[in-house]
Amino acid sequence: MAYGRVLINMGKRVTQRARGKGGPAFTVRRNAYRYRITYPSLTSDGNAKIVKLFNSPAHSAPLVKIMFGKETFITPAANGVYEGQEIKIGSEIKEGNIVRLKDIPSGTRVFNIEKSPGSGGKYLRSSGISGIVMNRDGNQIEILIRRKKMKLDENCRATIGAAAGGGRMMKPIPKAGKRHHMMKARGRKWHRTSAIKTNAVDHPFGSGRGKRVKSKIAKRNAPPGAKVGLIRPRRTGRKK
After folding, report:
1. In Å, how far are 27, 202, 209, 224, 235 from 230, measured between CA atoms?
2. How close are the terminal C-alpha atoms of the chain, in Å?
3. Pick from 211, 212, 207: which is nearest to 196 by CA?
4. Secondary structure of the chain: what % helix, strand, coil (to 5)?
5. 153 CB contacts (<8 Å, ≥6 apart)?
6. pLDDT for 38-71, tens place per residue?
7. Does residue 39 sit within a domain?
8. Residues facing residue 48 across a β-bridge
9. How many angstroms separate the CA atoms of 127 and 170, rounded?
10. Is the pTM of the predicted complex or chain greater than 0.85?
11. d(Cα 107, Cα 110) in Å, to the nearest integer?
């Protein structure tokens, strides 16, 4: 807008502030997240059957519907399982079986691990991912996830093997429209514009002109539009 010789260049809200307000561009497609990943009750022990193998837009790995007696539950599929396959809960180290960590020998690959006994699978649920059962420390079991280690209760349950769909990222995405529909199925906003590629009025990091370095430390009480960069950092500068 121009008033006489004064030019007012009006910017817009940064993405994170617009996301907080909501709107059609940021509305999550709830229908995609209708499946809840669970395990049967802690006392469950015996044979179960995979009754359905299917895809979920909200999950990178395919899901399986398992029937245990009259109870059904949904978990990420193990690599190599199929519809009609029988699995065991609580015993036997075989791909697809659900076993407590204390009963799994060291060096075994597992995925879909519970955070606490009975909570249902919370860790390692992405396609192709798995962790390795390591040492015992009292009543805790150490899990190696790539280069990181975590300790969990020995009564937490996990699925033997690796999550299916490990080759998902190998298939190329030849067109931008393909990615658009993939993100739309999940209710994700796409594409994402890098902050430094925006105009100076649209983001604190905007515009590449000038060599004056802007502070990347946001104030503690900064509004959502200005809370970008390092939020309450413990330290700044390059590590020596």
Report:
1. 27, 18, 22, 13, 10
2. 49
3. 207
4. 15, 30, 55
5. 101, 116, 117, 139, 140, 141
6. 999 988 899 999 999 999 988 999 999 999 988 9
7. yes
8. 87
9. 12
10. no
11. 9
DSSP 163: B
Place of tokens 């190599």: 80
Residues 122 and 215 in one domain: no
**Please, which pLDDT band fits residue 205 given cuts at 50, 70 and 90?**
confident
Q: Which of 232, 223, 226, 222 is nearest to 214 (CA)?
A: 226
Beta bridge partners of 190: none
Q: Which of 160, 162, 163, 164 is nearest to 91 (CA)?
A: 160
Cα gap 127→165, rounded to integer Å: 5
- The verdict on 148 and 214 lying in the same domain is no
Report yes or no: 87 and 77 within 8 Å, Cβ to Cβ: no
What single-letter amino acid sits at 199?
N
pLDDT tens digits, 57-110: 889 999 999 999 889 999 999 999 999 999 999 888 999 999 999 999 999 999
Distance of CA 68 to the CA centre of its chain: 27
Query: How far is residue 11's CA from residue 204's CA, in Å, rounded to a whole number?
Result: 11
- Alpha-carbon Rg for the chain, nearest whole angstrom, is 24
**Domain limits for position 20:** 1-27+187-231
Structure tokens given for 9: 């260049």
Q: What is the CATH number of the domain that holds 74?
A: 2.30.30.30
